[in-house]
Amino acid sequence: MAILGNIIKGIIDLQGVFTSEVNHVEAQHNVLKDLLNKAKHTQFGEHYNFESILKSDNIEKAFAKAVPYFDYNRINDAWWHKLHEGETNVTWPGDLSYFALSSGTTGKTSKRIPVTDDMVEAIRKSGIKQVLALKNFDFPADFFEKEIMMLGSSTDLEENNEFLEGEISGISASNIPFWFKSYYKPGEAIAKIDDWDARVQRIAENAKKWDIGALSGIPSWIELMLQKVIDYHNLDTIHDIWPNLKVYTSGGVAFGPYEKSFHALMGKPVTVIDTYLASEGYMATQIRPETDAMQLNTEHGIYFEFVPFKPEYINPDGSLKQEAPVVSLQNVELEQDYVLIISAVSGAWRYLIGDTIEFTNIERAEIKITGRTKFFLNTVGSQLSVNKMDAAMKGLEEQFSTKITEYTICAKRGEDGEFYHFWYLGAADENLDETNVANALDDLLIEANKNYKVARSKALKGVKVKCVAPEVFHDWNAENKKKGGQVKMERVMAEDKFEAWEAFVAAC
């Protein structure tokens, strides 16, 4: 009998009984007040006169008027660089122990995001919220006694000028509470292995020792790990070795493009729960099974603002124009893409993290990630966002009975001087007729996006497609960044990067 599991499940269910529905607008107002109060005597808070903002009749409007938008380069050049020089009380009070390294999809140079003690605590509270939300999924009691495989970056953090540095998944894993360590796999020793291939090899070697009930990590790397375990033990599916696997907590990127290939590795149905943990904080998590949308973590150290995602508000490098209008949670609308802006206990203020979102339920503050500001393809007016591209990939999978887990695109002139969209698809079947795929992709995008349809009738000449093995994308990441962790593939490339990509593919 699952005695411990029944106890844990009972605590979760009981917590749900005594937890009232959150008023997200009110919660956000309180979070902003708390942020301003706590930081009002920092260098940043005094420069932008937080005390005056707190005295205003509408602190949301006063805050938006007084403080400009920041992207990483702007806030780092003006403020965060001081932290590396030993200064304290810069954008958040007190000392800090960590910097989160975020290469993301932008290349080899890592951003260094400050991770404060308050940020670690906010992530912990949002993690507890995610655990408590499991009551909505009605898992059996014995599920709560199974082990959890968390495949993030290495927990062997590097010391740099008295700070510890690593990706946020490694920092979070290194701060798991003591009572959770018996559930956590692959365990501290394996998690500290920096080389991703070596770490996955050790996971495969030890897989039979574990009773995994849940997985957590970025889909592309989770799939590669699962395939390694399957191959190492000569299995048909991962359930042949982990029969009690019931949950996969996805994060980092949209799960849609990986859905078909992920479930192909399973022998039983697995519940997929989306989460949104970025280097700057834990933004949102899915809390109910009837939707794959995620609820913003409106109570735990992050104040959210939203800029309508329109070409006229975006600079060529993906940053925001300072005159771009902003709305708070109480004024957002459905069926509108927004650029997400955060102010947080990390000491980030009106900070562009680079993601775009859409609200699916305003009262519940539920969202979906729709893309990246830098991956918005607006050459000759096509206005393609990542969610439209992802949807087109799913359409191709159905039409050609294949799996497409990765892709990248560049808009540039062809040999005839006309503009084309050049696509590389990481398809399970590399022998697809590329002309037929290009025509089908073109039709799907025309049907899904009126701006693309207009562009195709004018300056956009057409679509060109090349199909390559998905492994080529993984090798590209290993060559230019590294494997595993928070690393994600660029969905849209500039011409210079695309030239290097094509040379890389040709050499494979």
From TrEMBL:
Residues forming the GH3 middle domain are: 299-362
Source domain of life is: Bacteria
Output a single Gene Ontology CC term carried by this record.
cytoplasm
Q: Which residues cross the membrane?
A: none
GO molecular-function term, one example from the UniProt record:
acid-amino acid ligase activity
Q: Which residues form the signal peptide?
A: none
Checking Pfam families in the record gives:
GH3, GH3_C, GH3_M
- Extract the InterPro entries matched here: GH3 (IPR004993), GH3_C (IPR055378), GH3_M (IPR055377)
Q: Which stretches make up the GH3 C-terminal domain?
A: 390-495
Q: Which PANTHER family match?
A: GH3 DOMAIN-CONTAINING PROTEIN
The name on file for this protein is: GH3 auxin-responsive promoter
Q: Which organism is it from?
A: Neotamlana nanhaiensis
